[in-house]
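User: Can you write out an input/output pair for a complex, sequences first and structure second?

Assistant: Here is one pair. Inputs:
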Amino acid sequence: MLSGKTRRELPLYLMLLPGLILIVLYQYVPMAGIAIAFQKFTPFKGWFGSEWVGLDNLRFALALPDAEQVIWNTVYISAMKIAAGLVVPLAISLLLNEVTRTVVKRGVQTLIYLPHFLSWVILGGILIDILSPSEGIVNQALQAIGFKPVFFLGDNRWFPYVLVLSDVWKEFGFNTIIYLAALTSINPVLYEAAVIDGASRWKQTLHVTLPGMLPIIVLLATLSLGNVLNAGFDQVFNLYSPVVYDSGDILDTMIYRVGLVDAQYGLATAFGLMKSAVSFVLISASYWLAYRYAHYRIF
Amino acid sequence: MVLSGGVGTRIFRVCNHIFLIALALLCILPLVQVLAMSFSASSAVAAGLVRLWPVDFTLKSYVYILKNAQFLGSFGVTLQRVALGFLINMVLVVLTAYPLSKGVQAFRGRTLMVWLFVFTILFQGGLIPSYMTIRMTGIMDSVWALVLPGAVQVFNVILLLNFFRNLPKELEESAFIDGAGHWTIMSRIFVPLSLPAMATIMLFTIVGHWNSWFDGLIYMNKPEHYPLATYLQTLIIQMDFKNMRTEDAYLLAEISNRTSKAAQIIIGSLPILVVYPFLQRFFVKGIVLGSVKE
Amino acid sequence: MRTNTRRWAFSLFLAAALTTAGCSGGNDASNANAKSGAGGAGSGGTAAAQTGEAPDPFGKYDPAIEVHAAKAVNKVWKFLPGDDIANNVWTREYESELGIKVAYDWTAEAGDASESSPYNQKLNVSIASGNLPDIFTVSPTQLKQLADAGQLEDLTGVFDRYAAPWTKELMQGDGGISMASATFDGKLLALPNITANIYNAQVLWLRTDWMEKLKLTPPKTMDELHAIIEAFTTKDPDGNGAADTYGIALNKGLYGAIASITGYMNGFGAYPGQWVKKADGQLAYGSTLPETKAALAKLQEMFKAGQIDREFAVKDPNKASESFAQNKIGVQFGENWNSYFPLADARGQNPGMDWKAYAIPTVDGSEAKPGVPFPAAQYTVVRKGFKHPEAAVKLLNFYQEKSYGKTRDNAKYRSEVDAKGEKMNTANFPLVISDKPNAAVVQDIQNLWAAIDKKDQSLLTDYESAYDAYNRYAGGDESGWADVRQNGPQDSAFTVLFKQYTDDLNVNLFGGRTETMAGKWSALQKLEGETFTKIIMGAAPIDEFDKFVSSWNRLGGETITSEINEIMDGR
């Protein structure tokens, strides 16, 4: 016989069942493929036949001439993207929250999410135009106020910031949506109480809005930590060029060149596994810290 | 909110409006350029002369697309994929998020379960094992290959379970006392009370299916079966210049026609652009309040 | 959403891994092969060989056999109503004439034929998961991979017995280097898809309306070319009063078919990106040789003098092409078909504009020897264990006979015309393709010019559409401009190529992959691109070149060079 507690939990397991079956089949079964990270993979000899080489793939990759520079570029660019990707959408959603005219609010919301739909191939061409040192509108503006023109896409001092800014510009509208949803779930009673206490809009934001959004902010921050080694393949691939390899070549573009162009499956998988492991450690650590010190489960 | 009359507040409000509207304009300029290109003569586009207004206005590109069988076919595949994917994703995200939103007291296995799901965001087997699984399950070259592997959107599950957890506990407790079971509570209380979060996830799901292209490329066996995003992707890749034959030079002129690419991008993204404004009506405050106050 | 797209982007570079089925798939294939080998192979070929009769190269299978295949296709291909890639003039005749039914397991976009093109990605997954069609086309990298894994049928015997005499002649038309590149340990494992690499020799495109305006004459030496470049930069050739023109166009990849440095470097006797024979008979990588340094030094000088677009380093060929239409550039090195793209578009925007192709000038005014790629960039292979490997050879016989042989019929096999008069380029549809080598192509072009000269269409052996275009242009129809500039009897890219360069090409002598290239080649290419771009832009002094050569050798280049020399000695 099932105990009462188990019987009450039974529907919960039933609900999870379809999802579980699907992830086991389409996610966990293929994970066996991670094995080739430790092999000198040869097609057809496959998983049992390929030679086991342990961590040689990773060692070889880390010994590539530019590995150090590339890892540093990756972390530097992605850290800035993570920070900006959290702060900008949050700020915009708070500002939008202060807009009382529905037309303006909805209009702005819709328009800022449009860049998400343009691919980097298209945006790449557009960015080359507007950032051009000779004719680009940005440089014309800079010259108008007395600065020298800057070759944004061809200068190692500027290139990483162009990546961060353009990425934020493309994605902030889309990420704002989550915060806007979070805003709606704050209990209006709290605002009414704050108004009665004489709190200004700024104080209300600080003491009601932000704490109310905190769980979502923490969740998104934690999950984005997992991207510390993802600096954005599509974007970099479409915007970089040999002049800015020094500051713009990232792990994913290197893996792409080595893995696909040189057909090194083991190497590419080893790199992927390293990225996953780093994400796993970071996300688990934040999960554990939040639970240990705040008794809060992030998810 | 009630308008309060402080000068500071009003200055803030005006600046805020100006700032946000300027930001919005900044965001649509590239799209306007693509739109202008789609209505321009191809030689003007090749010359890079088109800015925000069409040069030598023409509707040629749109006529060409509407006659292009592959574009229309791919459009159909995408519609099928979005409809099916949306349905499956939404059902599964709710079914998965609801149990996982329970505390450890109410659902002893939840921590293990939640990690089982989260783990799949972090580790993937890679392309080839996924491909072989798809082949073994016999769904290659069908819309199911685009829908089933990503049926559980773990990121959305985590998002929704966080929203579910923020719902007032009293609602659930009183429903239990009234004799309601988990299925009733999920469908009658949790889902209706999380409409903004549900709308967000609907949007993500639809946009995600609309934009995915790589799976179409690998799992479909004919270009005619490509979903729209995959087809558009093959438009923007470069053509092989290395082994150009004389006859191909004619094709090249067509391939390099950036105006029709622009038009296809516009037609290909229009339907998805209207989804958000439609879903916005669910982003309304105070639903929770209404039910708790009783 | 983000997670989803990321995951797919992620899989893209992790083109990786396998599971048990890959293993069993491989075993099945080798078992099947062992069986058919033991049973004396099911094909009539073996039987015929045993009885000493020469089998018919065009013999029909009865009953018909089925071939599972894969093919790279292009979305702009047009078909007759009701036709598609699996049902067209070629597949129908394969079945009726040869008794071969072609069933496509899959088709995918050819794209730019790079390793990341849709066809190659799909094929890589196919290879790695052990799920191969019977007959398909591969890149040199995939060929090496499959050959190493022992997954390809040995075609030595079947080619010998089944290839028609005309096929054998065409396949050896490049001096046999392509066939040698498909031969591993004495076994022919693939049929190279030979192309006439004379098409890839670069020419110098000059804006002739600017030349006339500034009273300049076509250059014979590099110094004369530099004078033209300087004049185009400083003498306001577009007459708008602004110093907004550059001399020469480059693209961010440096090489390629448009706005390339390849042709310019050839003028200095430099062959970057190519394996060339040094005086001592050994092969060396052209990018590391002193001639390349000299050319780079001159490019650096031109950049400093403002004769090269300061932003070339971020512009791909498409982006770089915009400057043609914007009246900013009057000189570029590229391929013979540049008149169709991008120059025709540029001309559409600027009615008075004209471009003509000229021979690459040289330092001392002698005739240039342009560098051309290896003649075979792709190979047709047969899966190990396929019962009818000779079918691939028969399909090749059929293609070469119908396209270039005595029974050729261009109106059917090269282009069909539908009811509306629209042309279908049927030459793209066959499964097994290998084209004519240079000598045959030169003959076709000479026949074209003879036909134009004598107004006699019957002299044509190809280029029917070019003949039409010439007559259109002669009749005042501008739409023939691109054709005439490419293949017309005067002032065209082909006159340059054929009068000057026939048998005087510098062929890239190695087209395959070596052991050490895997894993190291991409890093070496990165180093090359980075160093050359920096030198041209003046961000690094010219002596950085010597440092590049020593790093290149140290990071694997030296090993690769000796591997290639060993392979070539073996041939």
